[in-house]
DNA sequence: GGAAAAATTTGCAACGCCTGCAACTTCGCA
DNA sequence: TGCGAAGTTGCAGGCGTTGCAAATTTTTCC
């Protein structure tokens, strides 16, 4: 790797760290691109040659992690059922998303939970990985109905998103988060009909 | 209703229609707030006293419709199981979301499918109605576990969102969309394990 | 080692969204 | 008819974002 590439990586990192630090210190809206650029020792214009927008810098880390996970997912033992494979894939992704990365993980989570616009962006990303799940799914079972694949991915990702967000927002410990995820997977796999409270009549 | 209120309603409508017409004619990004204001015969500044942002004008109609649905939902016969009630609620909401409203319905859908930022906003709204589903659910079954409620809402809304988006993007007819929704509900209710293709081993 | 070529950074100007503010107009009510 | 409330408007300005061309740095090749 040449000097050029090394420097670019370094600059990218400097910008991201400066941005997250400032966001933590004085808030997201209160930090301008100019502030970030100054803190990272680059020109404001350069910021945009590394990140397409101010919002993207918040998701840079998690995106890298997700990309790694996707690469690792390509090779899976072929002797498990598609359902088992999907469970694995989902768990690995959750691991990547839910783990606190570096020292700024908590800040990123807090920012996303607080700012509606960041939340929207996060949901968009979630939606994009849902597309990925559809592709992986149709690859695992080529005979599957298109609608089925779409629905399964939607319900799976939707359910997982819901638990994780809930656990995050309510300060669950990693352990309780994990057991909540297990519970969520079970519900999605066995159906809403398997939840007793749902099929009991309200009369009492 | 006094003159004042009537005029406001009228102005709001004028702005929304002008905006959607211009979006359709020359594109979303190609239309500025100034253009919309001029077409609606108000000052640019006034636009923002009716809609908080340019994006919101795209969702104004659907938001109104959803609000109506929510009001109608409050009163449900108490002799059905929560699961049945949820199905009704979901179907009514889908009806509201999926139907083409007025002459601009198709344009709104197209805009949202095309523009990533609008897609993100749409997902955020979806997420908000998911919160509503959680509330309604815990109301229907007060004894339900918190996590269960969150997961169920997430899977339900996630699955529905996935089918509808897919049908929309692929130009399904209303009939085939409806049957796809039924299929989706069945999958979510009975669980992914009920889909044969998923539990068959890949070996053949 | 040095010059040409390629990639990167930078400053500049501009556009468009959005907001706060203060003046102005319109409406409702007594 | 006049007063207060509500709504509209213009203005000034901040901020994110982009295109462009000049300046700088890195690579490549002689």
UniProtKB/TrEMBL annotation, chains A, B:
Q: Domain HTH tetR-type spans what residues?
A: 9-69
Q: Does the keyword Signal apply?
A: no
Per the record, DNA-binding region residues lie at 32-51
Domain of life per record: Bacteria
Is DNA-binding a UniProt keyword of this protein? yes
Going by the UniProt record, its keywords in alphabetical order are: DNA-binding, Transcription, Transcription regulation
Q: Which InterPro entries match?
A: DNA-bd_HTH_TetR-type_CS, Homeodomain-like_sf, HTH-type_TetR-like_transc_reg, HTH_TetR, MftR_C
Q: What is this protein called?
A: TetR family transcriptional regulator
What organism does this protein naturally occur in?
A: Actinoallomurus liliacearum
């Amino acid at each position: 790797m040449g000097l050029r590439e090394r420097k670019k990586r370094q600059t990218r990192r400097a910008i991201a760290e400066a941005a997250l630090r400032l966001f933590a210190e004085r808030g997201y809206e209160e930090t301008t691109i100019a502030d970030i650029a100054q803190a990272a020792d680059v020109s404001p214009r350069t910021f945009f040659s590394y990140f397409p927008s101010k919002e993207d810098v918040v998701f840079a880390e998690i995106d890298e992690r997700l990309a790694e996970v996707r690469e690792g997912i390509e090779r899976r033992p072929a002797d498990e059922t598609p359902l088992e494979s999907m469970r694995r894939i989902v768990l690995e992704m959750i691991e990547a998303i839910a783990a606190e990365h570096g020292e700024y993980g908590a800040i990123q989570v807090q920012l996303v939970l607080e700012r509606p616009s960041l939340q929207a962006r996060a949901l968009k990303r979630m939606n994009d990985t849902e597309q990925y799940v559809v592709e992986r799914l149709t690859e695992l079972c080529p005979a599957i109905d298109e609608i089925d694949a779409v629905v399964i991915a939607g319900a799976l990702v939707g359910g997982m998103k819901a638990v994780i967000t809930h656990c995050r927002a309510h300060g669950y410990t990693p352990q309780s988060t994990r057991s909540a995820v297990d519970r969520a997977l079970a519900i999605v796999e066995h159906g809403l009909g398997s939840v007793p409270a749902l099929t009991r009549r309200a009369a009492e």
